[in-house]
Design brief:
96 residues; alpha+beta; two-stranded parallel sheet; 4 helices; 38% helix
């Protein structure tokens, strides 16, 4: 969020943070976000990702959230194995 123009797209997994501070720069940079979270996460509640994605979209950004009903905090296993993230990342480019 401190340097959103450095990236072409991001895919946070089980993320959290102050949405009022982080969402506006991400949205302003038009940084595509595909977030992932396990609904059984006992480390970071899934509501953290829900709030962040909602805040990014409310600020005019482009964020999507995939929730895994049976995943705990290790939802990166499902995200990186099953979602074809490599192809999604390669669809995005930063313009100079």
């Amino acid at each position: 969020a401190k340097q959103p123009s450095r990236f072409a797209a991001i895919a946070p997994v089980c993320g959290y943070g102050d949405a009022s501070q982080l969402a506006p720069p991400i949205a302003a940079a038009k940084l595509p976000v595909w977030a992932f979270h396990g609904l059984k996460d006992d480390v970071v509640p899934a509501t953290q990702s829900e709030v962040m994605v909602s805040a990014i979209n409310a600020a005019g950004g482009n964020a999507t959230l995939k929730l895994y009903p049976d995943a705990n905090h290790n939802s990166w296993d499902s995200a990186y194995r099953n979602e074809n993230l490599g192809a999604w990342f390669l669809q995005h480019r930063r313009t100079p």
